[in-house]
Amino acid sequence: MEIIEEAIEAFSQLPGIGPKSAKRIVYSILSSPQKGKRIEGAIERLSNDLTFCRICGNVSDGEVCGICSDPRRESTICVVGKPFDVMSFEKTGAYRGKYHVLGGLIDPLNGIGPKDLRIAELKERVEKEKAPEVILALDSTVEGQATSSFLSSFLRGCAEISRLASGIPVGSELEYTDELTLSRALTDRTREG
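The structure corresponding to this sequence follows.
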Protein backbone atom coordinates (compact mmCIF):
# COMPACT_ATOMS: atom_id res chain seq x y z
CA MET A 1 0.00 0.00 0.00
CA GLU A 2 1.18 3.46 -0.87
CA ILE A 3 0.37 4.93 2.58
CA ILE A 4 2.44 2.28 4.36
CA GLU A 5 5.36 2.70 1.95
CA GLU A 6 5.22 6.48 2.42
CA ALA A 7 5.29 6.07 6.22
CA ILE A 8 8.22 3.61 6.03
CA GLU A 9 10.11 6.04 3.79
CA ALA A 10 9.40 8.92 6.23
CA PHE A 11 10.63 6.98 9.29
CA SER A 12 13.70 5.82 7.32
CA GLN A 13 14.80 9.47 7.09
CA LEU A 14 15.42 9.58 10.85
CA PRO A 15 19.01 9.00 12.05
CA GLY A 16 19.74 5.41 13.03
CA ILE A 17 16.55 4.03 11.51
CA GLY A 18 16.90 1.94 8.39
CA PRO A 19 14.12 0.50 6.24
CA LYS A 20 13.65 -2.62 8.42
CA SER A 21 13.35 -0.62 11.65
CA ALA A 22 11.02 1.84 9.91
CA LYS A 23 8.83 -1.04 8.76
CA ARG A 24 8.64 -2.39 12.34
CA ILE A 25 7.70 1.07 13.65
CA VAL A 26 4.95 1.47 11.05
CA TYR A 27 3.45 -1.95 11.78
CA SER A 28 3.69 -1.30 15.52
CA ILE A 29 1.70 1.92 15.06
CA LEU A 30 -0.84 0.09 12.89
CA SER A 31 -1.34 -2.56 15.57
CA SER A 32 -2.06 0.10 18.20
CA PRO A 33 -3.88 3.21 16.95
CA GLN A 34 -3.56 4.73 20.44
CA LYS A 35 0.23 4.54 20.13
CA GLY A 36 0.00 6.27 16.75
CA LYS A 37 -2.08 9.12 18.22
CA ARG A 38 0.44 9.57 21.04
CA ILE A 39 3.34 9.74 18.56
CA GLU A 40 1.38 12.12 16.35
CA GLY A 41 0.73 14.42 19.32
CA ALA A 42 4.37 14.39 20.40
CA ILE A 43 5.57 15.25 16.88
CA GLU A 44 2.98 18.02 16.60
CA ARG A 45 4.11 19.52 19.93
CA LEU A 46 7.75 19.34 18.82
CA SER A 47 6.89 21.20 15.62
CA ASN A 48 4.51 23.77 17.09
CA ASP A 49 5.51 24.39 20.71
CA LEU A 50 9.30 24.44 20.63
CA THR A 51 11.68 27.06 19.34
CA PHE A 52 15.30 28.03 19.94
CA CYS A 53 16.45 30.30 22.76
CA ARG A 54 17.40 33.73 21.40
CA ILE A 55 20.37 33.88 23.79
CA CYS A 56 22.05 30.47 23.66
CA GLY A 57 20.39 28.65 20.74
CA ASN A 58 19.20 25.73 22.86
CA VAL A 59 15.75 24.22 22.37
CA SER A 60 13.17 26.18 24.35
CA ASP A 61 9.44 26.46 24.86
CA GLY A 62 9.75 30.25 25.05
CA GLU A 63 11.89 33.11 23.78
CA VAL A 64 14.52 32.42 26.47
CA CYS A 65 15.27 28.92 27.78
CA GLY A 66 15.14 27.92 31.44
CA ILE A 67 18.93 27.72 31.71
CA CYS A 68 19.54 31.26 30.42
CA SER A 69 16.79 32.67 32.63
CA ASP A 70 18.06 30.91 35.79
CA PRO A 71 19.84 33.52 37.97
CA ARG A 72 21.60 30.75 39.93
CA ARG A 73 23.63 29.72 36.89
CA GLU A 74 27.32 30.66 36.83
CA SER A 75 28.54 32.96 34.06
CA THR A 76 30.90 30.39 32.51
CA ILE A 77 29.77 29.48 28.98
CA CYS A 78 30.04 25.91 27.68
CA VAL A 79 30.06 25.84 23.86
CA VAL A 80 28.42 22.82 22.22
CA GLY A 81 27.55 21.94 18.64
CA LYS A 82 23.90 20.91 19.00
CA PRO A 83 21.06 21.12 21.53
CA PHE A 84 21.28 17.41 22.33
CA ASP A 85 24.75 18.05 23.78
CA VAL A 86 23.23 20.42 26.36
CA MET A 87 20.95 17.60 27.51
CA SER A 88 23.95 15.29 27.82
CA PHE A 89 25.80 17.71 30.10
CA GLU A 90 22.71 18.52 32.14
CA LYS A 91 22.28 14.80 32.91
CA THR A 92 25.71 14.77 34.59
CA GLY A 93 24.75 17.40 37.18
CA ALA A 94 28.43 18.44 37.14
CA TYR A 95 28.04 21.76 35.31
CA ARG A 96 26.14 24.77 36.67
CA GLY A 97 27.04 27.40 34.07
CA LYS A 98 25.39 28.49 30.84
CA TYR A 99 25.60 27.11 27.31
CA HIS A 100 25.98 28.35 23.77
CA VAL A 101 24.80 26.11 20.93
CA LEU A 102 26.65 26.73 17.65
CA GLY A 103 24.13 24.89 15.50
CA GLY A 104 26.77 22.60 13.99
CA LEU A 105 30.50 22.42 13.41
CA ILE A 106 32.86 23.91 10.85
CA ASP A 107 32.86 21.45 7.95
CA PRO A 108 34.43 22.85 4.74
CA LEU A 109 33.76 19.63 2.80
CA ASN A 110 30.03 20.21 3.28
CA GLY A 111 30.24 23.98 2.80
CA ILE A 112 29.82 24.92 6.48
CA GLY A 113 32.06 27.77 7.57
CA PRO A 114 32.22 30.00 10.66
CA LYS A 115 29.62 32.39 9.23
CA ASP A 116 27.10 29.55 8.99
CA LEU A 117 27.24 28.95 12.74
CA ARG A 118 26.38 31.06 15.81
CA ILE A 119 30.03 32.07 16.31
CA ALA A 120 29.65 35.86 16.01
CA GLU A 121 26.81 35.69 18.55
CA LEU A 122 29.10 33.74 20.88
CA LYS A 123 31.80 36.41 20.86
CA GLU A 124 29.24 39.17 21.36
CA ARG A 125 27.73 37.25 24.25
CA VAL A 126 31.08 36.50 25.93
CA GLU A 127 31.97 40.19 25.81
CA LYS A 128 28.51 41.41 26.91
CA GLU A 129 28.16 38.94 29.80
CA LYS A 130 31.86 39.24 30.73
CA ALA A 131 32.13 35.45 30.89
CA PRO A 132 35.27 34.53 32.82
CA GLU A 133 35.67 31.21 31.00
CA VAL A 134 34.51 29.59 27.77
CA ILE A 135 34.59 25.79 27.73
CA LEU A 136 34.90 24.30 24.24
CA ALA A 137 32.88 21.09 24.55
CA LEU A 138 32.66 19.93 20.95
CA ASP A 139 32.69 16.47 19.41
CA SER A 140 36.09 14.74 19.24
CA THR A 141 35.86 14.54 15.46
CA VAL A 142 37.93 16.29 12.80
CA GLU A 143 35.16 18.90 12.48
CA GLY A 144 34.94 19.34 16.25
CA GLN A 145 38.69 19.81 16.56
CA ALA A 146 38.74 22.30 13.68
CA THR A 147 35.89 24.27 15.25
CA SER A 148 37.61 24.26 18.66
CA SER A 149 40.86 25.51 17.13
CA PHE A 150 39.04 28.28 15.28
CA LEU A 151 37.11 29.34 18.39
CA SER A 152 40.25 29.30 20.53
CA SER A 153 41.87 31.82 18.19
CA PHE A 154 38.68 33.81 17.57
CA LEU A 155 37.96 34.28 21.29
CA ARG A 156 41.55 34.84 22.44
CA GLY A 157 41.63 37.80 24.82
CA CYS A 158 37.87 37.76 25.49
CA ALA A 159 37.87 35.10 28.21
CA GLU A 160 39.87 32.16 29.48
CA ILE A 161 39.42 29.30 27.01
CA SER A 162 39.43 25.64 28.04
CA ARG A 163 38.66 22.33 26.34
CA LEU A 164 37.25 19.14 27.76
CA ALA A 165 39.86 16.79 29.16
CA SER A 166 40.75 13.60 27.38
CA GLY A 167 38.63 10.62 28.10
CA ILE A 168 36.16 11.22 25.33
CA PRO A 169 37.29 8.93 22.52
CA VAL A 170 38.55 10.64 19.38
CA GLY A 171 36.01 10.32 16.60
CA SER A 172 33.05 10.02 18.97
CA GLU A 173 30.03 12.25 19.37
CA LEU A 174 29.06 13.73 22.73
CA GLU A 175 25.48 12.48 22.62
CA TYR A 176 26.77 8.88 22.76
CA THR A 177 29.17 9.49 25.66
CA ASP A 178 28.05 8.29 29.08
CA GLU A 179 27.44 10.74 31.95
CA LEU A 180 30.46 9.69 34.04
CA THR A 181 32.90 10.17 31.14
CA LEU A 182 31.35 13.55 30.32
CA SER A 183 31.47 14.60 33.97
CA ARG A 184 35.16 13.67 34.30
CA ALA A 185 36.05 15.34 30.99
CA LEU A 186 34.34 18.52 32.17
CA THR A 187 36.03 18.47 35.59
CA ASP A 188 39.50 17.73 34.14
CA ARG A 189 39.26 20.15 31.21
CA THR A 190 42.48 21.82 30.00
CA ARG A 191 43.20 25.51 29.54
CA GLU A 192 43.94 26.92 26.07
CA GLY A 193 46.69 29.39 25.33
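The longest strand covers residues 77-80.
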